[in-house]
Design a protein that fits this description.
- With 444 residues, the chain is α/β, with parallel strands linked by helices.
- It has two domains: 5-31 and 283-412, Lyase, Ornithine Decarboxylase, Chain A, domain 1 (Beta Barrel), CATH 2.40.37.10; 35-281, TIM Barrel (Alpha-Beta Barrel).
- The chain has 13 helices and 21 strands.
- Strands 4, 14, 15, 16, 17, 18, 19, 20 and 21 form a nine-stranded mixed beta sheet that branches. The protein has an eight-stranded parallel β-barrel with strand order 5-6-7-8-9-11-12-13, surrounded by seven helices.
- A hairpin with a 4-residue loop joins β14 and β15 (302-306).
- α2 (35-51) runs parallel beside α3 (68-77), α2 (35-51) packs parallel to α9 (255-266) and α8 (210-229) runs parallel beside α9.
Length: 444
């Protein structure tokens, strides 16, 4: 097991709390997070940067897991927030993150989101295009303000990660082309509604090799020095996030080595730095608990059909991602393992968590933990097949609490509205009447 989960007296536990007890009380599927594991990761990266004598702000990438309880715990420990929408900005503020420790990133900010960031007094907008810069200038001037800006530079560096989560090559939609960054920076400096403060770079997610970081950091450091020498008042550098975790056999870098690399490549600039870890902070600190519904022997395969599904954790379907799957009761060392497909109940062949996975003998009612589900799990979930979202539980020490309850179907149905004309039109066709033409008039 990785992260804060381990077998204690034969039962998979978070600290002293047996996960089977949570499953019995809350039901399955259910996400369980370890607050102790998350906070330990924050202390690890903050400590590593401090030991390199870097003036650094760690802004948690809220998109990885935006739950208020998690963001609040990190805010209380001193973390800032990296947000990419007005909703994430609201969550960060509600969780107690000061505006001055919030970075607003994202390639497609709306004018309303720009205004919300200005009103919140955020640390900086990471601007990703000249078009965005011009609109932000106008929004800021309309409010009689200046927008603090870092230009996100696309360094054209291959992060050597999954194609769907790499962000730093010339083919990606993110950032300003490195060759154009100087011109856009000079434009930013001239716009009255813009306070150009620095540069930013982020080359992708789930990086397990320091070499791409080194290339990107060196390129942005050189550009930073050149622009500052030309008279632009750059005073801060955002190095993004993206440190990976070990889902299977990856060997991600030690955070101490990452901090040393940052010190070596950009430390000479002598400016405050921003780091934006997300998955690395919370990924290993979460599991998805699920119960075996049936064991099915097919013509060529044996299936464990479980009550979790791709609507709960889409990463295996979306990215062909590997997640370790372990029983909540420690198997006997001599228990024979057999290849099984672990699948969910959704009507899609892609609803699969593992193929030909070696697991000990399992029976209906047995409990499993899908590991490393703390990042991009619940936040990417849906109600596909009209399935209820899985609840979320946070464990801290010997305490645990449901931090998001499982809704009932009545609650979900109450969010939907059937206009009277829809059913009338249907009845009219059934009864042979001429259906009414469509229009925008509200139903009475």
């Amino acid at each position: 097991m990785r992260g804060p989960f381990a077998y204690r007296e034969g039962r998979l536990s978070a600290g002293p709390v047996a996960l089977a007890e949570i499953a019995a009380a809350v039901g399955t599927p259910v996400f369980v997070y370890s607050a102790d594991g998350i906070l330990a990761r924050y202390r690890d990266i903050a400590g590593a940067l401090a030991r390199e004598r870097l003036e650094a702000t760690v802004c948690y990438a809220v998109k990885a897991n935006p739950h208020l309880a998690i963001v609040s715990a990190l805010a209380a420990a001193g973390a800032g927030a990296d947000v990419v929408s007005a909703g994430e900005l609201l969550r960060a503020r509600r969780a107690g993150v000061p505006g001055g420790r919030i970075v607003f990133a994202g390639v497609g900010k709306t004018e309303a989101e720009m205004a919300a960031g200005l009103e919140a007094g955020i640390l900086q907008f990471n601007v990703e295009s000249e078009a965005e810069l011009v609109i932000l200038d106008r929004v800021a001037r309309d409010k009689g303000l200046q927008a603090p800006v870092a230009l996100r530079v696309n360094p054209d560096v291959d992060a050597r990660t999954h194609a769907k989560i790499t962000t730093g090559t010339s083919e990606n939609k993110f950032g300003i082309d490195h060759a154009q960054a100087g011109r856009v920076a000079r434009l930013a400096h001239e716009l009255p509604g813009i306070d150009l403060q620095g540069l930013a770079v982020h080359i992708g997610s789930q990086l397990v090799d320091l070499a791409p970081y080194g290339l990107a950091f060196e390129k942005v450091a050189q550009l930073f020095a050149e622009l500052r020498a030309s008279g632009l008042p750059l005073r801060r550098l955002d190095l993004g996030g993206g440190i990976g975790i070990s889902y299977r056999d990856e060997r991600p870098p030690e955070v101490a080595d990452y901090a040393r690399l940052a010190a070596r490549t950009v430390g000479h600039l002598g400016v405050p730095l921003i780091f934006e870890p997300g998955r690395w902070m919370v990924g290993d600190a979460g599991v998805l608990l699920t119960r075996v519904l049936f064991v099915k022997q097919g013509a060529a395969k044996r299936f464990l059909i479980v009550d979790a599904a791709m609507n709960d954790l889409i990463r295996p379907t979306l990215y062909d991602a590997w997640h370790d799957i372990v029983p909540l009761e420690r198997p006997e060392p001599e228990a024979p393992g057999g290849p099984v497909d672990v699948v969910g109940p959704i009507c899609e062949s892609g609803d699969i968590f593992a193929a030909d996975r070696a697991l000990p003998p399992m029976a209906a009612g047995d409990l499993l933990a899908i590991c490393s589900a703390g990042a991009y799990g619940a936040t990417m979930s849906s109600t596909y097949n009209s399935r209820l979202p899985a609840p979320e539980v946070l464990v801290g020490g010997a305490d645990w609490a449901v931090i998001k309850a499982r809704p009932d179907h009545a609650t979900l149905l109450a969010q939907e509205w059937v206009p009277r004309w829809a059913t009338q039109a249907f009845r009219g066709e059934v009864e042979g009447e001429e259906p009414q033409a469509s229009g925008s008039r509200a139903a009475s």
